[in-house]
Write a structure and sequence with these properties.
With 205 residues, this protein is α+β, with helices and mostly antiparallel strands. It has 3 domains: 4-62, Nucleic acid-binding proteins (OB fold (Dihydrolipoamide Acetyltransferase, E2P), Beta Barrel); 65-137, 5' to 3' exonuclease, C-terminal subdomain (DNA polymerase, domain 1), CATH 1.10.150; 157-204. 40% of the residues lie in helices and 18% in strands. It contains 8 helices and 5 strands, in the order βββββαααααααα. The protein has helices spanning 65-75, 82-89, 94-102, 106-109, 117-127, 157-168, 173-183, 190-204, and strands at residues 4-12, 16-21, 24-29, 43-52, 57-62. It has a 5-stranded mixed β-barrel with strand order 1-2-3-5-4. The longest helix is centred in the last third of the chain and has 15 residues, at 190-204. It is globular and about 45 Å long. It is found in: Cytoplasm. Residues 64-141 are annotated as: Domain II. Keywords: Cytoplasm, DNA damage, DNA recombination, DNA repair, DNA-binding.
Length: 205
């Protein structure tokens, strides 16, 4: 297994980054590739998990070992695959995920894409008491925060749905706030807002 890659981030896409390690480009799948935009053309260490299937071999990347460990724990839960586990870790709320598991808070867990009540219950059954040691080193966010995005008096339903969809994809409020002014210029469908937001984020990378 590849423990980590230390190299230069040379490309960022909506789902992946490319890291140049001694002139070899590694394609790494990330829950939120735009976390790495500040390291574009700079050296960074990415902790990796190699997932092998019959039809594919993929590297998944994380900024911290503890995020990778949480990802590995989530993969042990029936009903959660790499994509779902990556979305949960990439929410940048890993401490809250651990707290929800320990407190049996199904309501919080079902907010993540692909996690229904059955899967949330399975997460609690499989992981309660096994992930709390990760908490001291995980990135912390205010536990009383519901949303960090400012409310806008003229926000329409389609834009609100697009914002929620972007969050579900792993993008954080800081990144979404950067593109909101552009999104608010037009009246679009939810899908069009999402496509425009992804395009703007990529252009800013």
């Amino acid at each position: 297994m590849i423990e980590c890659l230390k190299g230069t981030v040379i490309n960022i896409e909506p789902e992946t980054i490319v890291i140049d390690v001694h002139q070899v480009g590694y394609l790494v799948y990330c829950g939120n590739p735009y976390r790495y935009e500040e390291w574009l053309n700079e050296t960074v260490t990415v902790y990796t998990y190699q997932h092998v299937r019959e039809d594919a071999i993929r590297l998944y990347g994380f900024l911290y070992r503890e995020e990778r460990r949480l990802f590995e724990k989530l993969l042990q839960v029936s009903g959660i695959g790499p994509k779902g586990a990556l979305a949960i870790v990439a929410s940048e709320q890993p401490q809250l995920v651990v707290e929800a598991i320990e407190n049996e808070d199904e309501k919080f867990l079902v907010k993540f894409p692909g996690v229904g009540k059955k899967t949330a219950r399975q997460m609690i059954l499989d992981l309660k008491g096994k992930v709390q040691e990760l908490v001291p080193n995980l990135i912390q966010v205010p536990t009383n925060s519901t949303t960090l995005l400012p409310q806008h008096p003229s926000e329409n339903g389609e834009l609100e749905e697009a914002v929620e969809a972007l969050k579900a994809l792993g993008y954080v409020e800081r990144e979404i706030k950067k593109v909101l002014p552009t999104l608010r210029k037009d009246e679009l469908t939810t899908d069009q807002y999402i496509k425009l937001a992804l395009k703007e984020m990529l252009n800013r990378a």
